[in-house]
Amino acid sequence: MNSVYQLTNKIALITGGAEGIGLGIAREYVSQGAKVIITGRTETKLVEAKKLLGKECEYFVNDVSQKELHSELIQSIEETYGPIDILVNNAGMHMKKETLEITNREFESVMDINVNSVFSLTIAVLPGMMERKKGSIIFISSMAALYGLPKVISYSASKTALLGLARSLSTEYGYTGIRFNCIAPGFIETKMLLKAVSNDPERKQRILKRTPVGRFGTIKEVGYTAGFLASDASEFITGTCIPVDGGNSIGF
Questions:
Q1: DSSP track, 122-170
Q2: CA distance 29 to 177
Q3: Is 81 an annotated catalytic residue?
Q4: Which residue, 17, 134, 135, 139, could crosslink 22 as a Cys pair with Cβ 3.0–4.6 Å?
Q5: What digits encode the pLDDT tens for the residues 95-105?
Q6: Where are the domains of the chain?
Q7: pTM (2 decimals)?
């Protein structure tokens, strides 16, 4: 008997799925029985990810900032593999810089990739899901959307905007059977984080002291949450944001 937590026969598109959190979500989806399509700009990374994920993974080389190609991407995937049931908007851009040193162009570039491109791809996949009266669209936000962090104003603004997208889309299209939710990862053991804290032990201790569970999260744990939100087990959940942060956002 199939569990409501399984993704058997579902097709998932994950942007930025060749590494980091995107790859962790892809691995969880494959383990739950989904056919996974990952995208990214670098084919060598996509090839390595496919080797890791196996025959239930395919890839498309795609730059999410090329919004004019989104409809063509969706059409190619659905003509080749079938209708998309799950979209994970994971690809994004980070920038850490003093606010007064950020140029308008730099701010706009972060917003364009993290918000405009996400909106564009979501709109490209939405009509098909509406016609089928089902679908799960997941936005990878950040703890930077839940409380203030210094020197990441463009990133914080963009990730906060995703909460608005999920809420507005839920109220406008909830009747169609499509769900829109966010995940806000906390301090997760990625290569970037581990490199940063290895050079700053004081920062590491501040993070862990504020995190009630007393450790960093894992990519796999973000994948578990994404698996739940993609599955029928979450069919009455929409317009929300789930922090995967060990309590960091409510710690003191």
A1: HHHHHHHHHHHT-EEEEEE--GGGTS--TT-HHHHHHHHHHHHHHHHHH
A2: 21
A3: no
A4: 17
A5: 999 999 999 99
A6: 11-188+218-243
A7: 0.96
Q: Cα torsion for 247, 226, 169, 186, to the nearest 10°?
A: 30
Q: What is the pLDDT of residues 125-162, one digit of tens each?
A: 999 999 999 999 999 999 999 999 999 999 999 999 99
Enumerate the β-bridge partners of residue 35.
Answer: 11
Cα 140 from Cα 137, distance rounded (Å): 10
Q: Can you state the angle between helices 153-173 and 104-111, rounded to 10 degrees? A: 40
| DSSP helix/strand/coil, 100 | helix
Q: Which helix (H) or strand (E) holds 87?
A: strand 86-89
Q: Write the DSSP assignment of 180-209 as a string of letters.
A: EEEEEE-SB--HHHHHHHHT-HHHHHHHHH
Among residues 155, 173, 175, 224, the one annotated as catalytic is 155
95 alpha carbon, distance to own chain's centre: 17
From CA 116, how far away is CA 158, in angstroms rounded? 9
- The domain 11-188+218-243 is placed in CATH, from the list 3.30.413.10, 3.40.50.720, 3.20.20.70, 3.30.420.40, at 3.40.50.720
